Amino acid sequence: MPFWNCGGCCLLLIIGPFQSRYPYNQMKRQNDEPVSLQTWRKQRTRIGRPLMWALMIQAGVLMLTVFVVVFVPTERKEPEFVAHKTIYLPQREIEHQVALSAFEQVASPSLIMERITVDALSAHGLPDLPDVADQAFQPMMTPDMLPPSSQLPGVAGLAGMAAGLGKQASHLSFFGVSDQGERVVIAFDVSQSVIDKASRAGVPVEKIKEETARLIDSLNAHTTFSVVQFIRRYEVFSAEMIPATVSNKRKALEWLDHSFYTRGVSPAHWKRVESEQGKPELDGVQAVMEEVFAWEPDVVFILSDGGFGRNFPKRCSEVDLNELARDIARLQERLPERARIHFIGFEMKPKREAGVQSIVRQSGGTFKTF
Length: 370
What we know:
By secondary structure, this protein is an alpha/beta fold. It has helices spanning 3-21, 24-28, 37-71, 90-107, 157-166, 192-200, 205-217, 246-259, 284-293, 321-332, 350-363; strands at 29-30, 33-34, 170-174, 177-181, 183-189, 224-230, 234-236, 242-243, 273-274, 280-282, 299-304, 309-310, 317-318, 340-345, 367-369. It has two domains: 3-65; 168-369, 3-Layer(aba) Sandwich (Rossmann fold), CATH 3.40.50.410. It is built from eleven helices and 15 strands.
């Protein structure tokens, strides 16, 4: 109800009793006697004062109403977005619990079964087999009745899955040269000149070991690999390429730590190509290529300065790179697919660099020099 209606009601409540108490006729006469002017004015004053108080009260109420409405406005808060740190997704939580329960059920340990024990041997053995006529056994089975190979025990389940994953080639990265391969060979020229040039180029022996270890560690179990180091004679990590299993890769890293040669002279127990009579016929990088290509690799990494020395067939001579290119081309023809040769060189002379680039280009490999 508006405040001015309340004020009007208050006015009526104040004036009403006086109007009923002092009617007009009673103002004129009282007990049939005339009323004096002074008495009548006093009675009018009694009526006017309450009226004035009522008007003043109503004016005060109106002023209070204006003050409350105008000077005390209601405050409105701006809407704001509040996001809690943890968002609860009941459906995802249920799916996670179901998956976790299924995993725990599958991964639970198998039931422990009691072992079969023998208390004593029976008194009598099995009876002898009866004598039957020899007959050729011809099973009534056609090739269509044989189960597919994927259902055989050796290739089913996890074994078949692992075999399928293992068929992927390894991603190779060696001193910035990238490739993919399943049969990888790394060959190091560990002559003193190469070790010195590599150190001056910012690639010390420890860096070479680190890059080689990173490459070997990245091979998958299906990939086969081997490592060769050579000067004039050569030494191999393994007699043939071996799978890159965890144990074989650990053995290769141990071989790098203990057998990587940095003295600059071939030890006498290292290998070289010899005749049936035991006479030396070939050594140096040409003997290494004969050994490496016999393994049928698809990727070969070579680190050298291009100055390959040899003692056979000509003593204390440098290998002619054109002759080396012809030997590699002959060995490439024996492979099912051409092997890619990647060469990492150190402070190479222009003539050696041109000869090595020709060999690398013919194989489809990459040439990089420091």
